[in-house]
Structure formats: structure tokens, C-alpha cells
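Person: Please work through this fold.
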Amino acid sequence: MNYIYGIILGLLRGLGGTLPISESGHELILQKLVQFPAELLENAGLEMLLQLAVLAAVVIAFYQTVWKLLAGFCTMIGGIFTGKFKWRKAGPYQMMAVYLLVGTVPLLIMGYVQQFFTLSGNLILAGVLMLANAGLIFIGTHSLCHNWTMLDMKTGHALKLGLFQAAAEFLPGLSRTGTTISMARNMGFKKETALEFSFMLTIPALIGGILANLGGIGTLQLGVAGVAVAAALAAALLSVLLVKWLIKTDRFGIFMFYSAAAGIAAIILNFI
């Protein structure tokens, strides 16, 4: 039976970690519907591997962006040490590397705050925030776009997007990708830029989650972990490709309806 639970948990992490539908909100719904074994749901080692699977899916789906980002960052560092780097001549991926560091700052602060204060999730709160998530997607898909690219990004933009991601990490019902893509679109960035920056911003968050769960690696059931990781990797990869296609075809707003329906369902489930 644990194999089935492992697959379900893997699908939850893979889909929830990449689609704009809130992983934390769906976890609360799932816990209401299914009695998950504590050894799976609270297993730090399994959680680390699932986060690693989602990270691998993002890197695979955006391998060209990741490569350009790493190359741009290394070139920039080399230019800084040799005195040849000029910010006004920085390329888009060099600027993205810097602004990703800026956007990660709110997440680091939130991670520190969560050591002392955590918001206990409940279905009503998750449902309300899923409705808010739907509202953010509506705002993003109905915003006037200025067709801004990475060359138009400022420090304030990166900090705001980082704050939205940090809020999504802290509040059950909000989605990392849903909030950051939608708010980047609302700021005026092109859909391609919003998509790239949002998913690249998830990479530091995923790495942080992996490092935070390193201590539990010795408590794994290998068979269950294997099927869970395989499910997470497949689901996350397909989900990222789906989001890319929906953004390209201007159909990202479909998640607004799903998130709203899931929010209403969560509120109803709370009283059942």
C-alpha cells in the first residue's frame, strides 16, 4: 500500500511544485481525503529526493536557459575580477543571474522567520488563498503588457517577485509559479521573460528545500522512494512543458478556473 501512497505523494510534489495550483493547498486537501502514513509524509529523506526530482525536471525543461545563465554568470564574475565588466553592457542572462540573487533574498529571510513562527495550515485558509491565487492569475492574464525583457528589469521588480515567491512558500494555497508569473506579467514583462524568470527563481527555493532535508536521507524505504521519485520527475517534467505551451498559446488563464474550483472544494471539505 505504501507504494500507492508513494506514487500519489510523488505526483503531488511534481504537479504542485511546477503548476500554478498550490502544492501546499492540495496537500491539505489530500490529507483530508486520504490517511497518509506519517512515515511517508514526514520523511525528510523522501522529501529531499522529491524536491531533487522537481529540480531536475525544471533544469531539463529549461536546459538552454540554465546553460546561458551559468555561462553569463561565469563571464560576469571573470569580468569583475579582471576589471572588464560593465553593468551597462551586461547581457540579459548576466542581469538575470544578478536579479535571481536579489529575488532570493526575501526567501532567505522567510526561511529564517519560519524557524520561530509557522502558519499552521487549515482547509479554510488554504481555500481562501487558492481563490486569491486564482485572482492573481486573472490579474496577470488581463494586464497590459509593456513587452519588457530582462534588460528592463530593476532591483525593485526582482525584490517584489521574490516577496511573492516567499509568500507562496509561507502561505498554504498560494503557488510559487502562479504568483510570480502572474505578477511579472502585471509589471509589464513579456510572457517569455515572466516564464523564464519565474522558473529560474524556483531553483534556489528547491535547492534550499533539498539542503534543509539532507539529515533524513538514512530513513528511506528504497522501493517506495523509487516509485515516488519517478512519479514526481515525470509529473514535474510534463507539467513544466504544459505551462510553457499554455503561456505560448495564451491559455495560462485556464489555471484561474482550476484554482478557484479547488479553493471552493477545500472550503467545503473543511465542513464535511
Observations:
- Residues 2-270 form one domain.
- The chain has one domain: 2-270.
- The chain has a mean pLDDT of 88.
- The two ends are 26 Å apart (CA to CA).
